Amino acid sequence: MTLYAELHRHLGGSVVPRILWRYFQRNRPDISSQFAAYDAFEDFYTRPRKTLEEYLELHTLVESVQTQEALPYFIYRLIRGAYIFENLAYLELRYTPYLRTPEHLPQNERIEKMAEIVETVGRASQQTEYPVVTRQILCMHSKLPGEVNRAIVDLAAQYPEYVCAVDLAGGDAQYRDRLDELVSLYAHAQSLGINTTGHLYETTEGCYPELLPYLMRIGHGIQIPLRHPELLKEVAARGQCLEVCPTTYLKTGTLQEIRQLKTVFDRCFDAGVDIAICTDNAGLHNVRLPFEYETLLTQDVIGFDGLQACQEAAFRHAFAWPHNSQPSSMLSALLRRTRLPRAEAETVEAPSGLINQAWFQ
Question: Which cofactor is essential here (predicted)?
Answer without folding.
Answer: Zn(2+)
